[in-house]
Amino acid sequence: MKLTRFKFIALVVAALLGAAALPAQEKKARKARPSPPATVSADIDGNEVKIAYSRPGAKDPKGGEVRKIWGGLVPYGKVWRTGANEATLLTIAKPITIGGFALAAGTYSLFTVPQADGSAKLVINKKTGQWGIPYNEDSEKANELARLDLKKGKTDANVDPFTMAVEKTGAGAGVIKMAWEDTQYSIAFKNQ
Q1: I need a labelling partner for 183 at 20 to 30 A (CA). Which of 81, 91, 117, 153 fits?
Q2: CB of 151 within 8 A of CB of 122?
Q3: Cβ(150)–Cβ(179) under 8 Å?
């Protein structure tokens, strides 16, 4: 009986110590990954469209200075990981047509190529599990499925940190949006 009681007390103490350590672990994880992960999704008439990405902020996590985003942190003319940390992932339960391109159900990495003139391309890559940068365009060509035009617009208010959204726009249709500072890029899609 004493052994059972001892085990019970040991379990309670271990649980209490573990619970006390959680806030410290969360703080350490935030410090190690200053761009927190996020997931957004929408049900588009029975098709779950989900994006997993990380949300960098305008302030430098080391020094706190406000960084130049477009043409700075996000360079013009180069492939950007569309967020931070690991490459952003798009998962679709059923096939869609996005920007005129037929995309089968599955999971894909998303990258963006913004240009100084304000235009931008969305890169859909079939390889997953990549770190976001550097992106070797020569070796990744075989994995790229499409480079699609994004529509640029202005946001109603300043957006920080980087934010993505999946929204239903009509029967079997939706839009993927990404916004940072006063700039928003979007691309429409529809179920096949």
Answers
A1: 91
A2: no
A3: no
- 88-92 vs 173-191, strand pairing mode: unpaired
The string of pLDDT tens digits covering residues 146-165 is 999 999 999 999 999 999 99
The model carries a pTM of: 0.82
What residues have CB less than 8 Å from 97, skipping those under 6 apart? 103, 189, 190, 192
Instruction: Report domain extents, the chain.
Output: 1-32, 34-191
User: Residue 3 and residue 115: Cα distance in Å, rounded?
Assistant: 69
Q: Which among 78, 52, 58 has a CA at the least distance from the CA of 164? A: 52
- Statement: residue 25 has pLDDT above 80: no
